[in-house]
Amino acid sequence: MLHIYCPHCGEYREEEEFHCAGQAHIARPLEPEACSDQEWGEYLFFRKNPRGLHHELWVHAAGCRKFFNMTRDTQSYEIKEVYKIGEQPSVVAE
Amino acid sequence: MQKYSGFGLFKHSLTHHENWQRVWRNPTPKKKYDVIIIGGGGHGLATAYYLAKEHGITNVAVLEKGHLGGGNACRNTTIVRSNYLWDESAALYEHSMQLWEGLAQELNYNVMFSQRGVYHTCHTLQDMRSNERLVAANRLQGIDNEMVDAEQLQKEIPSLDCSKNARYPIMGASVQRRAGNARHDAVAWGYARAADALGVDLIQSCEVIDMEISDGKITGVKTKQYGVLKADRVGCVVAGNSGVLAKMAGFELPVESHPLQALVSEPIKPFLDTVVMSNHVHGYMSQSDKGDLVIGAGIDGWVGYGQRGSYGIIEHTIQAIVEMFPCTSRVRMNRQWGGIVDACPDASPIISETPIKNLFFNCGWGTGGFKGTPGSGNLFAHTLADGKPHPIAEPFSIQRFHTGALIDEHGAAGVAH
Amino acid sequence: MTQQNRLTSGGRIDRSTPLTFTYNGKQYKGFKGDTLASAMLANGIDVVARSFKYSRPRGIVACGAEEPNAVLQLGATEATQVPNVRATQQELFDGLVSASTNGWPSVDTDVMGMIGKMGGNMMPPGFYYKTFMFPESLWDTYESMIRKAAGIGRAPKEKDPDTYDAINQHCDVMIVGAGPAGLAAALTAARGGARVIIADEQNEFGGSLLNSTEQLDGKPATEWVRAVVEELSTYDDVLLLPRSTVNGYHDHNFLTIHERRTDHLADIAPVNTVRQRMHRVRAKWVVLATGAHERPLVYANNDVPGCMITGAVSAYINRYGVVPGNELVVMTTNDYGYQAALDWADAGRKVVAIVDTREAAVGDRTEAARQRGLNIISGSAVIEVQGTKRVTGVSVAGLSASGAKVIGSVTKLKADTVATSGGWSPVIHLSCHTGSRPVWSDSVVGFLPGPTVQKQLTAGGINGQYETAVALQEGLDAGQKALAEVGLAVADVVLPEAKTLKVAAPMSLFHIPHLKPTSQAPKQFVDYQTDVTAAGIEIACREGFEAIEHVKRYTAMGFGTDQGKLGNINGMAVAAKALNKTIPETGTTVFRPNYTPIAFGAIIGRNAGALFEPERYTAMHKWHVEQGAMFEDVGQWKRPWYYPQKGESMQQSLNRECMAVRNAVGILDASTLGKIDVQGKDAREFLGRVYSNAWAKLAIGKCRYGLMCGEDGMVFDDGVTACLGENHFVMTTTTGGAAHVYEWLEIYHQTEWPELEVYFNTVTDHWSTATITGPNSRKLLEELTDFDVSNDNFRYMDWKQITVAGVPARVFRISFTGELSFEINVQANYGMAVWEKLIEAGAKYGLTPYGTETMHVLRAEKGFIIAGQDTDGSVHPYDLGMGWCVSNQKPFSYIGKRGMNRSDCTRANRKQLVGLKTKDPKQVIPEGSAAVLDPNGPKPLEIQGHISSSYWSETLGHSIAMGFIKGGLDKMGETVYYPLGDGTVIEAEICSPIFFDPKGERQNV
Questions:
Q1: CATH of range C296-422; options 3.40.640.10, 3.40.980.10, 3.90.76.10, 3.50.50.60
Q2: Which segments of B178-310 does DSSP mark as H helices, in order?
Q3: Is there a contact between A31 and C253 if contact means CB atoms under 8 Å apart?
Q4: Which residue in the set B252, B305, B310 is minimally distant from A74, CB to CB?
Q5: C943:B204 CB<8 A
Q6: In what residue span(s) does the Rhodanese domain sit (chain B) (predicted)?
Q7: What CATH number does the domain located at C674-765 have?
Q8: Contacts of C608 in chain B (CB under 8 A)
Q9: Taking the model in full, what pTM does it have?
């Protein structure tokens, strides 16, 4: 079970208070109408799904209810860092 | 292929079982194949078997980075059923179901396909509506599925709490009586043995580390152990690694790999001779021929390749099991483990061409992979032989995630199984 | 019955407290401090089980978690049955009732044993894959026979009378195992000021020291144990957990400890006590001091009762004062095996021989045996055991130097007990749980914990260090390291003096050869519980199952309830030999949780029965209960479904409730609908982005219905939002969708549009909502308010802040029934009071409470959808015929717009929501029914769509239905057919889904 540091609350809490909302840094296209079906499909469904470092979006659902990003190793489950929305990771997945 | 039978067992017992033949060879790979299948799990082995048997293509290699049937093939809870909602999926899983029936005889390997029935319990009016819809659709699709009321259900499964005292009292259930379980290892081994007998090379401990692609066309794969192996066509069937292989080929998939856990109790005297699943309280259970209660847990909500999930999921699952089967409170959990499920956004698989010519992917089965094994292999073999999808497989293209023609089986897939 | 194997003195049992227990219906005596196993051995009980496949008699082999055979049924009553209790871990209590689980008519004289003897040769590994196939139709019969033989114990048939609970724990250092290494680590960490938890599966701390006569500081080692435990007990921040098994080690140093609080007292927990407890521990550092399990050797007939491991023999003698036989033969590959012979001789019984597979090994223990004059046979092995229900003798022969072959002649010795030691396997289970792969060590002759990302330390036996002095030092070192890691100073600890004995090198030998080839020799068991033999493993290898995982799966090795604690390494060795590989070349063996099995009840703790999942009630719940309402589960809410009156069928209730609304006035508890308060200067803009329709012009005091879609364009929720102020709205959602919608708003705000100034707060529970609807609803409202609620002053789709029954209320004039309606929202604390006032005042207007079912009928008469019932994630607003609720004029590309314009979403012939009118007005199409164009066509029939809502409409005097039909909106008036399960077919005409008051005049009065 993951032990997660909420960057908003400033403390470690149990995974049960959080949930993962998928891959981080997927920006909604600014002009959806300009997207082809192909591009819109990719925005909606296609994901990196790496074995190794991954940037994810999490929410402290049963806590402060704020979203934040997490860089986590999907093989060892080590959390490398958490950072707020709008910030960039210092440990970067390839 | 040495034929298996009760008489054979007797004969071999006279010679102390010293003369059993190998179930499959251990060949050194050739430099070039007509078809290379990456992944020696149930689906890959079934694909190889049907390629050889139904399409006469025997110059085939199955490349497996570990040992045959060592991934999700041996980590699942072995449920087989075909009562899916949409016509496309119903056709796919029913195709598979019909291959299950008679598979042991066809492979001359007892896969112990046991048609002991699978029940979906309904705990709310919405559950009832969903299941009634499913039953009605299945009837027209030619798939057996029926509703039973709570009273009848209690008679059929005495250990299930069908009383009004439950937190979510059971209102009824749908049951597919042709559905059931099979012995997971035997399925992989049976296909492997039969494919080998038809000339397919099964190469274990052979890891693909790159794809040989030129002009948007695949010509072979690079392996860690044997260098480049050439092939006219390559089929990728690597549940739990699809994203990694797709990345080698330079594209992304609409797939995420999540931990999916399961657990078994200690072996106890059989009291449950069928399979019960509840989407509402989130648990499902059967009892194996050894006496273990086989219980599937939910999917963790994050990408994970560690074959482990979070303990909280196990707690929730067992809560559901004890809620449904109060007599299990003093039964003990023996072992838990995790697999890696490649889940598609619509809970339906991908059997498809890819952006790379002659490279085909069969993935994204989510929790439905085991039951789909024969059908998946059969249709994928057809796809690899023809270079284009079988009509039943056609709707399951990657393209659907662009056009929007999804086959949303979340209702039918519900809890993980 | 006498305890013929009990010594008159010695051991840690309390001879002044005799206990009575029952095994297979017979009463026996034991003492406080016994395990069930030690008491059985004291009483000379040899056969405790019949084996799974061959029905061979089996006896007790070990004395702890590794025991494969002594797995019994426990329990004096039906409700307190416990299956599969390991007798070696069950403390004896007075009145304990136990039974063996297999064997007919009894475990001693088992008919199946005969069949096992004759048919055993027909059952090589995987035999079931090779047979039972013909004819296909008989598999069911074969399987039911197989299932008759399945299982060990049985589940109770009654509900568990006991309760369980869980505690969340946090600590600096979690120490697993309270042997010498664990205690040294705990003492160090505790003195250093760390928060410590130390857990051990046994009933008292001390580990291996409890089983030996070893001395520390010149005194019995247990004295040191007592002093350490005493000191540890004085620290506030140290939690000592005996009878507590750390059964799982999960990511980020999360561990679960299974504490058995009452299993040693009775088979039912004393009143007001929990039977078992799970500790869910988050530890900064973990010290694994789990010790090692002894490996038995694999030799012919090594499963005959009387065959044990040497450590167990010593433990039974030293700890329980029980000598489990009279004449002992020891076979060992290492010095530690000699200890059993020394202890046996000390107990005054006959040591027939010590058979050492090594030539001329010289260590302190071997020399002690020599000095005692014990008969040591070097370079030899016990190649076969005689006896069936108890060992009667052994065959000893010389071995080649490698141990691969028997050389020389065979000598037969008379003996009733054979104790073997093939060395020790470090207990690495927990370190494997987090995905760490173990590493083989040639010097230890075993697997050691592999590299890990957990904050984990190891000490003692788990590192292959079996000398007490080394274990103590490693424990101390681990304690100091943990202190440093958590930022505490070095602790002052002086270790007790332990005698360091000289140990000769062990021999790497697992499988004892026989005169005959393995395939023809008597059975040599590797895994007792699953009946896996060395010959079976050879067959598996011969057949091509070469990866160790294949071997395990093909033979079932390691799949028992002991998870191969005794057998796995031996099995790997046999496979390695067959494949001509080294053990590490065949693979590794990875253990999964649980270390030992855990009751389901303990895992779920309090979350059972009434506490399985919370029930949510509205403020008016009590009233509904008093009125005899039937309830419907919607999410966690209990909603009134309908209110039956005496003698009414459900349909009669619904008809009555519906007619009351249409002709008079009805009242519905609508409190469960999700309510989200939305504020901020960009609130209006935000609404326009998340709803498909327009919000720019919604005036203060007005309400509007909206559809919410995903980025794929599919509808997932709907509801009415009211404009409370220029920058203030309140949104309603479906009851089940509230949490999801709330998070949906947050994720878009926080991650996509943080520049918008908008705030959300869930206020569902803050409000109680009473909906009054029907022609008399205005008259009723007028009774309870001074506000002018006339049609001129309070228009349809308006909301007003007024006073109702003396309570401030937000009243929305919106309608889900098509009737004149008012939704009265008051602070939840006033909900019941206002409700009761309404009921009281409503009597003269025919006010009738109605539930969700009537609500569904009434809205269906109007063609209103229910999100989740008439949508399934695959329909967009146009599919629902709700294009009127989509605004394509909005400048911002709202969520769903692009999605619903993908090629598949705009194609012809999509399934569209329509009304369906049956040809026979009395027939109600079952919900879920599938439509076809030609019911007589060949299967599979092409499904045109399904019925999503269907009811009898008492208002209209005919049935009504809503459902999906391919291209349905263009097929008005056409006929479709619904084939039912009973073979009949319902014919229906496609029509508008608005069956009642199509112009909407009734709500506008």
A1: 3.50.50.60
A2: 184-197, 242-249
A3: no
A4: B305
A5: no
A6: 35-79
A7: 3.30.70.1400
A8: 319, 322-323, 329
A9: 0.96
